[in-house]
C-alpha cells in the first residue's frame, strides 16, 4: 500500500506544538501499511518490515537511512536477518505529528519498490 502521504514533504515540527491525540493518530494510521505499522501508547510508531534474506533487509535499511538524511527526520532502526524494525516519533515534542506519518508512508513506498 502506497499512501498519498508519501508525496508530501516531511514538515518541521516546533517544540510548542502538541503531540497528536489518539483519534488523530488513528486517522493517519489508516494511511499506512496496516500489516506493518502500529501506534504504541499514543507515543510512537512501530513497524516490522519482513524480507526474504539479510541482503534485502540491509538494502532497505540503507535506503531508509538515505531518506532520513534527506528529510532530516531520523527513525530508530534495527536490522536482523529478514526483518527491519522501525520506531519513529518527533523527539522535539516526545510524540507523534503528521511528519512522522509522512515519513512512515515514504518508508512504505521504499518497501513497495523493494518487493517488486
List the helices and strands and how they pair.
Layout: H1 22-29, E1 37-40, E2 44-50, H2 54-71, E3 76-80, E4 83-88, H3 98-114
Antiparallel strand pairs: 1-2, 2-4, 3-4
Helix pairs in contact: 2-3
Low-confidence stretches: none
Portion in beta strands: 15-25%
Strand order of the largest sheet: 1-2-4-3
Largest sheet, described in full? 4 strands, antiparallel
Number of strands: 4
Q: How do the helices and strands follow one another from N- to C-terminus?
A: HEEHEEH
Alpha carbon gap, first and last residue: 13 Å
Overview of this structure, please?
The chain has three helices and four strands; from the N terminus they run H-E-E-H-E-E-H. It has 116 residues and is of the alpha+beta class. Strand 1 and strand 2 form a beta hairpin. The protein starts with 21 loop residues before the first helix and ends with a helix.
Main attributes of the structure:
alpha+beta; single chain; four-stranded antiparallel β-sheet; 19% strand; 116 residues
Summarize the structure.
Helix content is 37%, strand content 19%. It has helices at residues 22-29, 54-71, 98-114, and strands at 37-40, 44-50, 76-80, 83-88.
